[in-house]
Amino acid sequence: MQQIYKIDETRVGNIKKRALLRSGKVLLIAYLLILPLFVLQNHGPVLVNIVLPFLFTGLIIFFSISVAMKRIEKSYKSMQIILNDQGVETKADMMPFKAIEWKNLKIEEKSSGAINLYDMSVPTFSRKFYGRGWIIIQPETLEKDKLLAELQKHAGNY
Known about the structure:
This protein is of the alpha+beta class and 158 residues long. It has helices at residues 12-40, 46-78, 124-130, 144-155; strands spanning 2-6, 80-84, 87-91, 98-101, 105-109, 115-119, 134-137. The chain has a four-stranded antiparallel β-sheet with strand order 1-2-3-4. A three-stranded antiparallel β-sheet has the order 5-6-7, with helices on one face.
């Protein structure tokens, strides 16, 4: 038995938007926490001590985000979720190969429509901090309901 599921390529933009919002929130908070440090340490011209560093870091952040968005698009367009006799696997360009055996699989549906698959043989800290033993199935997956039914059927047999 081998079944392959893919992401709907026309909806990869939704994944990119979610990633951009998540990273944008973190970057904005970091940016706002750093701003007072520059303002409080200002002992010279405002242009040199405040404006130029923020323009420079803003350009670096913009460049980093644009590169990350291209990588996300390429990764999700090539992503495959494979169900086989051993368990669940994911393969994609520029993403690590991940596999979870059926006997260790825990399924968690999120209100956002995403499905989290956990490998219960991997400690929780490693799953959350390093991403080991954790597969996220995006809501944009083609035939997601069929995939979820197959996951539940096989995970329950072990």
